[in-house]
């Protein structure tokens, strides 16, 4: 685990901004915001799409980046709450997607109240893989 940099705190603020402007207080369909920074410095954001088969905020941000031709990812973070006050860990499905698409990408987490970064591949040590290699 590594400590956060100023750029990481800026990324957290981007995640907070996207959920502040999209938080759904009526139906709670959008309660999580995510921000993904690519190695070239561009940031893509997303909010969760809550439904039976909805997408997590991380998946929406990853999809936005990929749609724009990005393939080299640096850091991702997800926040929850009306003000984005809680940094949350990726769910199991997101961990698998992070492992598949960006195993070297750093993920910002809050562990016992302290923010740290870990490589995405560390979040799912025995991940399913399509092939052995």
UniProtKB/TrEMBL annotation:
Keyword set, alphabetical order: Hydrolase, Metal-binding, Zinc
One Gene Ontology term from the biological process aspect of the record: nucleobase-containing small molecule metabolic process
Name used for this protein in its record: Cytidine deaminase
GO CC list: cytosol
Protein origin, superkingdom: Bacteria
UniProt cross-references to Pfam families, sorted A to Z: dCMP_cyt_deam_1 (PF00383)
UniProt similarity note: Belongs to the cytidine and deoxycytidylate deaminase family.
GO MF terms, alphabetically ordered: cytidine deaminase activity; identical protein binding; zinc ion binding
Residues annotated as domain CMP/dCMP-type deaminase: 6-131
Database matches in Gene3D superfamilies: Cytidine Deaminase, domain 2
Organism of this sequence: Candidatus Intestinimonas pullistercoris
Span of the signal peptide: none
